[in-house]
Fold this protein.
Amino acid sequence: MTAIPDKTEIFHVHSFRCRHAEAVPDEAYIQKAIELGARGIWFSDHAPFPGDLFRNRMQYEELEEYLSTLADLRERFTGQIAVHIGLEAEYLPSYAKQGYYERLRDDPRVEFLLLGQHFAETEADPPEYTFSWDKERLERDEYTALGEAVVAGTLSGWFDVVAHPDRIFRRRKRWDAGMERMSGQIIDAAAAAGIPLELNMHSITQKHHYWKEFWELHPSELTVCGVDAHTVDEMVRRFHRQE
């Protein structure tokens, strides 16, 4: 990662390719960011995985177009705004063993990887994913599985920022000792790896996605604000909110 973005930059922007974002070209975000006076914009759309097993993200065959389009726009807007190219991905051990993250980082166009743990992989063979669990198990065990994956991903060396770390507690109703222990493990791992945690401007607006108790444990100097924008209007609102 070239540098940790500050509040004069727009960090964590998605694109139409993820299939749950606004159907506008990447340039629409860039043009609006320039209007807002931002010094930089950091794209981190949901990374595709070989085999396309997971929903709500681009297909693996679309990755080249995503990278080449943003690389062209980065060149085109040089001198007006810094366009940064990244991907948001879950840490999945089976894909790490296949060299997936290494291949992403070997592409010179990829400036950073954002660890966004929306689901986790179990040790079953073949792997099982937490999104297949029933409601009771998700409410009881999901945050532990996601938290352990966040710690492993943070310490893997492949990622530059941890996205919305407190969102792993989205199915919890009240703060407890287990959540505090897991928070401590994540915060300690980030400190050991020297990478920031993202205070997510979308999570703040969602019930049980933002936990002030988590952030009271985390040193502010290791925090980056992210807009997590899936529309241009979201980007505008959340950029103003982080000021």
Summary: The helical segments are 26-35, 63-76, 93-97, 100-106, 135-156, 177-193, 212-217, 232-241. The longest helix spans residues 135-156.
